[in-house]
Specification:
186 residues, 19% strand, alpha/beta, Rossmann fold
Length: 186
């Protein structure tokens, strides 16, 4: 199995990274190969809505998305990971998600039926405790997964991290590990 983690957290050792690392450890223990993409360190320009991808399934913008497209196409498992910013993913990750319009166009407009089926996961943390965050950020992840021909298999998250850090939540870290392990085993 080949997994790609698309990470959108700007804090190198923040709550989201700690939770994601636990999931990654599970994947690795299941002998899954992993590509880790830190979107905050890449040059990803925003989609400009030109609709070129509706004609040939390709984006004309030349930036770091080319290698991201290649990695996602080869992956069996795609994991989105982000802290919650205003009830959604970070702006860096949102720009990347928008650029997957080309995958959407291949599947739904150009009717390409030869797109690999994938499993999808969402990992997120939120400083607040509002359960509506699961619904809000989950909807973004669900539509991204539909575009890349993946099902959103699970959401791993921690709310209330302003009060209790993820590193102090052994149960959530164990859950992330076991879900990663299960994902990596197929």
């Amino acid at each position: 199995m080949k997994a790609v983690i698309i990470y959108g957290g700007p804090r190198e050792n923040g709550n989201t990274k700690i939770l994601t690392d636990s999931f990654i450890k599970g994947l690795l223990d299941a002998k899954c190969s992993i590509d880790f993409i830190d979107v905050t360190k890449l040059k990803v320009n925003p989609c400009i809505g030109c609709l070129k991808c509706e004609k040939d399934g390709e984006c004309f913008i030349k930036d770091d998305m080319k290698f991201i497209y290649d990695i996602v196409e080869k992956s069996d498992i795609v994991i989105l990971s982000s802290p919650v910013y205003f009830a959604s993913v970070t702006s860096q990750l949102k720009a990347l998600i928008d650029r997957f319009q080309s995958f959407y166009s291949k599947k739904y407009i150009l009717k390409n039926q030869n797109i690999k089926k994938r499993k999808g996961y969402l990992i997120f943390t939120a400083g607040g405790k509002n359960e509506k965050m699961v619904e809000s950020i989950g909807l973004t992840a669900k539509f991204f997964m539909l575009s890349i021909n993946a099902s959103l298999n699970d959401i791993i998250y921690a709310l209330g991290t302003d009060e209790i850090k993820v590193s102090d939540r052994e149960e959530i870290l164990k859950t992330a590990y076991y879900k990663g392990y299960d994902a990596g085993r197929g």
